[in-house]
Amino acid sequence: MTAAAKPLSFQALIMRLNQYWGDLGCVILQPHDEQVGAGTLHPATVLRALGPKSWNAAYVQPSRRPGDGRYGENPNRLQHYYQYQVILKPNPANMQDLYLGSLEAIGLDLKLHDIRFVEDDWENPTVGAWGLGWEVWCDGMEVSQYTYFQQVGGLDVFPVAGELTYGLERLAMYVFGVDNVYDLPFNDPDSPLGARSYGDVFLENERQHSEANFHGYDVEVLKRQFEDMERQVPLMLARNYQNKALVLPAYDMVLKASHLFNLMNARGAIAVAERASYIGRIRDLCKLCAQAWVDQQEDAA
Amino acid sequence: MPQLLLELFSEEIPARMQGNAARDLERMARDGLAKAGLISEGLKAFAGPRRLTLVVEGLPIAQPDVSEEVKGPRVGAPDQAMDGFLRKTGLTREALVERDGVFFGQIHKTGRPTAEIIAELVEQIVRGFAWPKSMTWGTGKLRWVRPLQRILCVFNREIVPLEIDGIVAGDLSEGHRFMAETRVFRARDFTEYEDALRGHFVILDVEERKQRILEGARTLCFARGLELVEDEGLLDEVAGLAEWPTPILGDMDPAFLDLPPEVIRTSMRTHQKYFAVRTPGTDNVGTSADKTGTLAPHFLVVANIEAPDGGKAIALGNAKVLSSRLSDARFFWSEDIKDGFEPWLKKLNGVTFHAKLGTMAERVERIVALAREIAPLVGADPDKAAEAARLAKADLTSQMVGEFPELQGVMGGYYAREFGLDPEIADAIRDHYRPQGPGDAVPTAPLSVAVALADKLDTLVGFWAINEKPTGSKDPYALRRAALGGIRIEQDANVRVELVALFERHFDRVDEQIFQAELARKQAAGGAFVLGRGKSGGTVRERELLAFFADRLKIALKDQGKRGDLVDAVFALGDDDLVRIVTRVDALSAFLASEDGTNLLQGYKRASNILKAEEKKGDLPTGAPARVAEPAEEGALYDALAANTPKLDAALAAEDFTGAMTALAALRGPVDAFFDKVLVNSEVAAERDNRLRLLQQVRDAMGRVADFSMVTG
Fold this sequence. Notes:
The complex is a heterodimer.
Chain A: H1 10-23, E1 27-29, H2 43-46, E2 55-64, E3 80-89, H3 95-105, E4 115-124, E5 129-138, E6 141-152, E7 155-156, E8 162-167, H4 168-176, H5 198-216, H6 219-238, E9 240-241, E10 244-245, H7 247-266, H8 272-300
Parallel strand pairs in A: 1-2
Antiparallel strand pairs in A: 2-3, 3-8, 4-5, 5-6, 6-7, 6-8, 9-10
Chain B: E1 4-10, H1 15-35, E2 42-47, E3 51-57, E4 66-74, H2 79-89, E5 97-99, E6 102-109, H3 114-128, E7 148-155, E8 158-159, E9 163-164, E10 167-168, E11 172-174, E12 184-186, H4 190-199, H5 206-223, E13 227-228, H6 232-239, E14 246-251, H7 261-272, E15 275-278, E16 295-303, H8 312-339, H9 341-347, E17 352-354, E18 358-359, H10 360-374, H11 382-392, H12 399-403, H13 410-418, H14 423-431, H15 446-465, H16 479-493, H17 499-524, H18 540-559, H19 564-571, H20 578-593, H21 595-617, H22 632-653, H23 657-677, H24 685-703
Antiparallel strand pairs in B: 1-3, 1-7, 2-3, 4-6, 5-6, 7-8, 9-10, 11-12, 13-15, 14-16, 15-16, 17-18
């Protein structure tokens, strides 16, 4: 294989990845409509990784890290950014080659750049998940996270699912040789309808949300909402429709709780000692969903 | 002779696991072959980023045949017995021979083909391999460190038929991911294999990869008038990250050189795995107190490919990443110097040191008290020592140390200078974690010694107080390292302190803090009544901790070539001043190396054996011996003791242990002569008692120098 020509814009890069993984047979999904901290949390990954059924999907997921907001002043750090997520279950034997093919598809010449698989044991305690894999480095920069899921929601993943996460802004900055994320060409710079930079699209968003994250939200309200969500999850799981517990809505509640926790954390409203307990509470909810999901998969199988 | 070649080809193996994996593979193969009676001429294992390889030279083609004689029935035994024997052994009646009225047969066991045994052994090795962390993949159940892709297994140029969880062994392997024209190649023996690997841009042997990196890096640096900052640990790591390691020299924005050199090096090393580069003839790149340092504005990265543009794109890409890392570091620096020590100290209240030992702020309180106490012993100002100790841990809450934990202390030192604090205090903050290992230097400035020692002793006393002592190979709080560090500091700085009393006062501080915390907790919970704090009786904990020190000291002295038994002999006296103990051990060691010493030791043993035997019969006679004229040797020993015991005591009081040994040496002649000529067990009770009194005096005199009964040889 040889590298394709470079895409011309951020959006073109995303379309290349969609094209590449779509051509390989993945379901190309749109983002999940909940606020999440990482693409992994999309039910298409967390839930579909579990159970015996195969599943191959790729999607862009906006990810929110309220504490990383810098009012648009830091060239590398955003409180809202995009991850590109691929999940292949069971992971095909040639998954590394498929991944490298995707880098070529976005214009990276693998004979000219130094690609390395550097040990990284991934874990996400809020969803009780861990796996083994690597950070993938391109010329010393981490461009992707590559993980073979071993457990999710505290349950063994079998068949094993392979997960790829590309930090899209960072990858694009590398591909386009741009030092400031806000300078990324969002669409084709020669577009007859006018060139738009990443900053044109998102700078104001970063400013407003940074202020909201650090100072805007009312902590008491966040806390109450968190507890509301926490209460709703078991109720939702206790409810059936056609003999199935309402796992998918319940899991959305978990995502909401998780985002509320991130907001409280960014507000500095969570003491160090409380942190672990909050994470534990979210993990317990997630485990309930994971178990209910697996039960449904097995009933169907 | 036939050769075995095995390669386990997988996805990228973590660099830190490769060395042990090669050793484990070699050991498992050697043991397995030996167990099957297969002796080889040599065996070697290799590990790299994507493969574990084993080559075994000179194996036999099959196990040796074995022949063994079996005893059959007696001559004239019933037919059933004979039939049963023949059935069991598969022998025929004609093959048996008769000897002394019993039938015997020869059973031949043909050795199994080696290939069969290899097939079993390989499966055993793969399934039983002890990776620190392993995983499953796809739909399989097999565990390996990362997905196992291929097995190459050839014996005597033939493929060994074997299959493990769907992976069928063959004679195929793969070369470099990106550089090789054709990815897969075939190999039937080790020479073919190694050549094919090289032809496919893979260097098999980690030592050769390291050599290639070092030579390449040095050459690149030399050509630019620069020098590589060598780093053994980093070299090991990068040699495990590239199959075709290719050093590339990149440029760093010189504006970053205003950052502390430790920050630049740590950022390069831990985040990017780059080597630092310096201007030749300087080694001032990590211990410098002064911010400029002499790092050169370059870095050396080890890539995995030789790119057609000579690595230009790779160097540029890496330079960009480094710039953004160092920009972060500069951001941390500028944020940190806005804060200052006092806000950091407040934050230490929120940092737990250990659930049972309270917060880092509480630990600081204890170290302050201890540093103040130690300061006068090492010629440091107590107030300054207390201030240095108070500030020593503040940098733990700075942003820079949050990002680079290994820079704790070092950053505190820099910030202290930046804030205009006393340079001695800045140095003490910087050096108080030292020595961090056997290769690390010991602080020498008095103030630094006081704080560094206080830091280690607080750790030890603290964990001892909550009963978290090291057991076996488990030492989660690195208490052995702390004790060894304390010993080295005391020895180097000649710190004269009676440890038991010092420990006792510090145990009190720890107990008091734990008690107060408990009290506060109970009061907060509405408890009205709290029992007073009991004081633990005696100095059991202190003595135990001292014994822990003794063990460490023994190891330290052994490393210096000194005898462990002499440390025991001196420790048995109950001394708790490490400096004095070492001086005693040295004097004792010199004495025992002399002829007088070895002879006197024999004399001591004789005296002590006689006394022990007599003690079993009844109490030894008490009181002072009398001087007798006859036999002359008995009188001479009396005189020698009378003349030398005061000298011995004076020397000991003056801590002149060489002098004490000289006084003992004077006893050697009279003791030898006494044993030569005088019968201790005289039939005359008065004579016997007097002689036993003399021997007790000899034993007591020597016992003031060391417990000679613990000296071996």
